[in-house]
Amino acid sequence: MSGPSLSAHFASRQPSVIRLAQIEFAKRQDEVEDLNVAIGNVSLPMHPAMQARMRTLGDPGSPFAEGVVGYSATVGLAETNAAFLNIIAASGCDTAGLHSQITDGGSQAMELVVVGCCGPAGSDEKPLLLIDAAYTNYKAFAERVGRDTASITRTLGDDGRFSLPDRAEIASTIAATKPGAMVVIPYDNPTGQLYDRAALIGLAQLCVEHDLWLISDEAYRELYYVGDEAVSVWSLTEEEVPGITGRRISIETSSKVWNACGLRIGGLVTDSPEFHARAVAENTAGLCSNVIGQYIFGGLAGESHADLQRWFADQRAYYGGMLEDFTRRTRDLLPGVIVSSPDASIYSVVDFRNAAPADFDALDFVLFCSREGSVEVDGRLRTLLAAPMAGFYSVPAGEPNPGRTQLRIAYVAPPAEMALVPDLLAGLLETYLAR
Asked: Model's pTM, two decimal places?
């Protein structure tokens, strides 16, 4: 008996490229150990204020002391929303007039902005404009809710820097595709690029000129390794970008800077009262986000800006050193390989276009590493799990995909493990090419 059929959407689904290697590796039956740098699953402890709340969930005075875990309002606990606004303010931004709601991680916030800013696919309503290479989940959520995407494509130079098209070309793409919103990731995932203030102002001006929402994914805010100040959509002023007020949305999360990926607490912040009200209304079907997670993250609401700035500095010091080391050693071990400039966030792109045969395919290399590849490191058989970059680009059928020769590396393992990544990459590539 064949059973009922799947929807066309489900029947076409494939795993995200950030989970693909992990899924394939789990099928292996040998003794090879994996080093998973395919997904941004941070391995550091949470902020002490969050840890303190986690350890005392059942103590007297805790809202869970009696074992009762009820719903919160859909908008989230007032304290948890205050925590997100306190964090934004700690980066030097004015939070007056900002509205916050709590979501199930930054992921649910992404889905809400796609629904709220863009029209149905196949209609004359508005797609979501992405800057390729773009975080792949935006495309996945757009497909899930029946929205189209459009894209501007950056170019990775031999020097490791991603370059935007000039302003006229971006404006031409906007005019041709008529998007409803533009997504910018100032501390970029997947490229590790930092959008400086001038670049963010230029993109914001285009949003005003073409009447778009500006969606700023600020999951990695404060993780910058060049320059001397945080960049945020909330630091832009009316003097710099007349008309920007009322069209800004930021996606916030506990996952990255706060090292709480599994807490699944995110925030959707906007300076548009109407967008906020409608987004909360849309989310009432989801009832509320994890209340225990909200309470744990809410511990940051009372932290001083000085304490938060010390925390930011510690995170930058931790990641910055690893990015520099990986970039230098990978370039040394693999002559000709391109490693993206280590400017921001917790990712690097590695491009083999000048260091491997012309038919090299990064997806096939990733599958080799996860399914059968291994090299001996420190007396142990290891393999590397990474994310193939082709899935981070929106490329029409038949056109070359810049990500075909690229991998994304996430700096999520402890430093001693991350130090092994260049050697694993070089050894696995040699084995792969010698087949």
From this structure: 0.93
Going from N- to C-terminal start, the domains of the chain cover: 8-45+308-433, 49-305
Q: Position of tokens 């590796």? A: 25
112-115-121 Cα angle (round to 5): 150
Check if CATH label 1.50.10.10 holds for domain 49-305. no
Instruction: Supply the DSSP string of 248-291, one letter for each residue.
Output: EEEEEESSSTT--GGG-EEEEEES-HHHHHHHHHHHGGG----H
Do residues 346 and 40 touch, judged by C-beta distance below 8 A?
A: yes
Report which of 387, 381, 383, 355 is spatially closest to residue 371, judged by C-alpha positions: 383
Contact (CB, 8 A) for 234 and 250:
yes
- Average pLDDT, whole number, for the chain? 94
Q: Could you tell me what percentage of the chain is helix, strand and coil, using 3-state DSSP and rounding each to the nearest 5? A: 40, 15, 45
Instruction: State pLDDT tens for residues 171-198.
Output: 999 999 999 999 999 999 999 999 999 9
Pairing verdict, β 155-156 and 162-163: antiparallel
Q: What are phi and psi of 410, to 5 degrees?
A: -105, 135
Angle, helices 78-90/305-333, rounded to nearest 10 degrees = 60
Strands 375-377, 155-156: pairing kind: unpaired
* CATH 3.90.1150.10 for the 8-45+308-433 domain, yes or no: yes
CB 368 within 8 A of CB 432: yes
- Residues 321-337 have a mean pLDDT of 95
